[in-house]
Amino acid sequence: MTDRRGAVGLLYVAPALLFVAAFVIYPVFDLLRMSLTSASLLGGGEFVGFKNYLKAASDGVFQRALWFTVKYTVLITPILIIGGFALALLAAEKSPLARLTRAIVFMPVIIGLGTSSLIWVWLFDEQVGLVNKLLVDAGLIHQPIVWFADGTLGLWAVVVSIVWKVIGYGMLLMLAGVQSLGSDIFEAATIDGAGYWQRVWHLTLPLSSRTIALTTLVSAIGSMLAFDQFYIMTGGAPRGDTFTAVYWIYQNSFIYFKLGYGAALSVILMLIIFLASAIQIYMVRRASRA
Amino acid sequence: MSSVAEPADLMDAAAPRRWRPASYLFAAVCVAVIAVMLFPIVMALMASLKTGADAVAVPPHYLPSTLSLENYAKVFQYQAGLRVYLFNSLAVASLTILLCLALAIPAGYGLAAFPLPGKEVIFLMLLLGLMAPYQALLTPLYRLFSTLGLTNSYLGLAVIHTILQLPFSIYLMRNSFEALPRELAEAADIDGAGSLQTLWHIFLPAALPSIVTLVLFAFITSWNEFIAALIFMNRENGFTVPVMLVGVRSGHFGSVDWGAVEAGVIISILPCFLIYLLLQKYYVSGFLTGAIK
């Protein structure tokens, strides 16, 4: 009976399994195979061994792109975590204003990354952009800044846009974490005379450490895969200074049609992400058992 | 003053006095945060309502000098016409929703209601899509789709969006089916109902909120997705809305028509906002489930 029910159950799971096999597992193996060939978009491709990987190891642009992606990730993640935590504290207050703040901070999360990038590339435009207008009006600068002519300024413009776009994500995760802590312990601390900031520092923060770690990983993985915002806002300019890893893979695979080489770069990126995801899943499983 | 405390006085007594300046500070911070978060969208809306010339004025103005729908008219007539691109986006999103429902509901049911051999291994396999970033798989997928004739097709792009959305959908359905009381399924068994009938008459109605969440997320993912749409729909008439907007922005005639770009931005944001306003409850709960995947 159990065997038969198990078989019936398998039947229900089979379509999804087949889908994953065809569109995730098979492509992963095909990617590995392609990375060892000189394939181009027109098909074919000789087996070239590890030539593509050796090329990647000496590809200055790829290394610069990978390094730039890491720089972007290291820059934006702490801002998202600290900002998200601060907003979670704000949103956790019991007041209608806090609820409104929460709803509005979360709003940009649901719009597209492409769409938000189009808003921000306009806001940062050196001529018609309102960021320059605001800075001039506030007397902070005298001449409009040409944001995207410089790799560092361009990076900051993207960071601002992404913080706006995704900070609500971290806020909501950490808010859920904060709210799951229960109020007993906080009431006890209040009765013992602990002030608000003391409670935040000694209770909320340490008790949220897992949520914070999880949010950090989610954010870091997302940042390592950045593409849309740079494609739309900087276009890799100036001089390829703002190419990210995915952007360089895209260029090689779909602009230069070096599929084999693009595949090798993808494998390298996938290994990095795989490692981060494995840590994430391990952490979540530990957290859900606790 | 009467000797009986008014409710307001009671609340004052309960809150320590030193909190009062803090509550002004709290309000000020909230208002500042709200202002910063709303600024880009409100300004994009304002720019979209300017006249074309007003929208590219240097230096810019915050508000339109005269209200005009000129930019919207321009976006509607862009290339093949906005209607074509909206249709493309909606067609791909609808197929994505259908695929996610068709795969995730049975999978969730199979995992939740049956004694599957190797259940956890199967579950992990189904979540593999989470660990292999689709950005890295675009090259082999492109080759596979070329063979299958799925490039430049709604179904092809929908398959990619389903890859993105399936792990979440399965996780969601499994969880919500497992949360149902065991007796439901057992009662159905005694009645001699087939497993398909049990799914249809008992599990599905009970899991309706999760299905709403699944549909919402599949729609938003598909509607907003950019890089795969850029690569797989490379014919002008097949563009989805985000890709078309980037086309408006790169401006075929030299200077960028920012008014038209922001009008397009507002149009593409609209469905997301409507969903958020109407179905916030589903959205937020689904979001939290997904994040803990």
SSE order and pairing:
The complex is a heterodimer of chains A (290) and B (293).
Chain A: H1 2-34, H2 51-57, H3 60-91, H4 96-110, H5 113-123, H6 130-137, H7 151-179, H8 184-191, H9 196-207, H10 209-224, H11 228-233, H12 245-255, H13 259-289
Helix pairs in contact in A: 2-13, 3-4, 3-7, 3-10, 3-12, 4-7, 5-7, 7-10, 10-13, 12-13
Chain B: H1 7-14, H2 19-48, H3 52-55, H4 70-76, H5 82-113, H6 119-126, H7 128-131, H8 134-148, H9 154-178, H10 182-190, H11 195-206, H12 208-224, H13 227-232, H14 241-250, H15 258-278, H16 280-291
Primary descriptors:
heterodimer; A: 290 residues; 13 helices; 76% helix; B: 293 residues; mainly alpha; 2 domains
Q: Detail the poorly predicted runs of chain A.
A: none
Number of strands of chain A: 0
> Helical stretch count of chain B?
16
Q: What is the element string of chain A, with H for helices and E for strands? A: HHHHHHHHHHHHH
| Major sheet attributes of chain A | none
The second-level CATH architecture of the largest domain in chain B is Orthogonal Bundle
Uncertain residue ranges of chain B: 1-18
> Which term fits the overall shape of chain B?
globular
Description:
The complex is a heterodimer of chains A (290) and B (293). Chain A is mainly alpha-helical and 290 residues long. Chain A has one domain (35-289): MetI-like (MetI-like fold, Orthogonal Bundle). Chain A is 76% helix and 0% strand. The longest helix of chain A is centred in the first third of the chain and has 33 residues, at 2-34. Chain B has two domains: 7-69, no CATH class; 79-250, MetI-like (MetI-like fold, Orthogonal Bundle). In chain B, 75% of the residues lie in helices and 0% in strands. Chain B is globular. Residues 1-18 of chain B have low confidence and may be disordered. Classes of the chains: A mainly alpha (290), B mainly alpha (293).
